[in-house]
């Protein structure tokens, strides 16, 4: 992204956007992934493009849920693979989770390209590619229904960064704990997940790495209690309240930029 001016006020955001475009050009981000990113950017403005307190709480609880899981799996799609490949692999090693490619717009080529990106980022094993995706999530009719029998199908805790909707519900119906990372607190995914992290994947994964590192030595009972005492409904309400209060404050303070008078 050498064209991004060094002093552009939205430099960071432009760089991140460029990663999506690169992933798209390389053939593993879906067309629709570009649209999804734009939607994410919009919601990111509402939370002030930083991790808000309820998201931090959810990230800590998510780390606890992953550390205490007996069979945790991280589901990876095109957007996540381009936004945080090394971080996803690092988190999977820290919490002993399997990595599985699971795509809404599934093609053999994209599956393999994403698995390659993950391997180049240090992953030893990547599930869900080609014939490995031979188990079926009941009641799900998108391509996402095809999962690895050694991965999502048998997982007790599944992390789904940047999800598209009804799979979270289907996984919940199977009795699994679903951790979603979704900047839109109103999406079906956010409303169906067991633990909803309303934050950008770019910030959420590093935060979870930090928490998992800190919490690894904590007594198991304490971690289990953290998860048990977490109330996702309450947490999502806090997210909505945060956004409402933030917008009210901006509305009363004003938001225009200052310029010299003509
Ligand atoms: O790679 P595939 O084929 O599995 O397809 C992936 C996409 C993302 C295209 C697919 O899952 C999809 O269509 O998703 P949706 O329905 O567009 O939902 C994506 C959600 O993620 C939206 O609620 C966005 O607000 C949110 N989102 C987008 N970018 C980010 C994000 N949330 C967190 N971090 C982001 N960077």
How would you describe what is shown here?
- With 262 residues, the chain is an alpha/beta fold.
- It has a single domain, classed as Phosphopantoate/pantothenate synthetase (Rossmann fold).
- Helix content is 52%, strand content 10%.
- It contains eleven helices and seven strands.
- α3 (53-68) packs across α9 (201-215), α3 (53-68) crosses α10 (220-229) and α3 packs antiparallel against α11 (232-253).
- Ligand PTJ binds at residues 30, 32-33, 36-37, 39-40, 43, 77-79, 83, 103-105, 162-165, 181-184, 187, 200-202.
CATH superfamily: Phosphopantoate/pantothenate synthetase
Level of helix content?
A: 40-55%
Q: What is CATH's topology name?
A: Rossmann fold
Question: What does the average pLDDT come to?
Answer: 96
Q: Characterize the quaternary organization of these chains.
A: single chain
- The helix-strand sequence is HHHEHHEHEEEHEHEHHH
Total number of strands = 7
Parts with pLDDT < 50 across at least 5 consecutive residues: none
Rg calculated over all Cα atoms = 19 Å
Give the N-to-C terminal Cα separation: 35 Å
Strand content: 5-15%
Q: Outline, from the CA principal axes?
A: globular
The number of domains is 1
| Largest beta-sheet details | 5 strands, parallel
């Amino acid at each position: 992204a050498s064209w991004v001016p060094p002093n552009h006020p939205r430099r960071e955001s432009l760089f991140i956007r460029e990663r999506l475009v690169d992933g798209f050009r390389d053939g593993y981000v879906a067309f629709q992934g570009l649209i999804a990113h734009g939607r994410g950017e919009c919601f990111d403005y509402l939370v002030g493009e930083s991790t808000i307190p309820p998201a931090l709480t959810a990230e800590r609880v998510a780390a606890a849920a992953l550390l205490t899981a007996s069979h945790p799996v991280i589901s990876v799609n095109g957007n996540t693979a381009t936004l945080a490949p090394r971080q996803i692999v690092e988190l999977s090693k820290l919490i002993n989770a399997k990595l599985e490619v699971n795509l809404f717009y599934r093609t053999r080529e994209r599956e393999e390209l994403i698995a390659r990106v993950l391997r180049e980022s240090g992953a030893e094993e990547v599930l869900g590619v080609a014939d490995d995706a031979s188990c079926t999530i009941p009641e799900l009719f998108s391509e996402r229904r095809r999962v690895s029998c050694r991965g999502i199908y048998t997982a007790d805790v599944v992390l789904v960064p940047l999800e598209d909707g009804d799979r979270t519900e289907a996984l919940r119906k199977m009795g699994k704990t679903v951790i979603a990372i979704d900047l839109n607190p109103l999406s079906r995914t956010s409303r169906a997940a067991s633990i909803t992290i309303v934050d950008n994947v770019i910030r959420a994964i590093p935060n979870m790495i930090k928490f998992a590192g800190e919490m690894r030595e904590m007594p198991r009972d304490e971690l289990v209690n953290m998860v048990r005492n977490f109330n996702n409904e309450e947490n999502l309400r806090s997210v909505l309240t945060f956004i409402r209060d933030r917008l009210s404050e901006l509305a009363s303070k004003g938001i225009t930029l200052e310029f010299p008078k003509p």
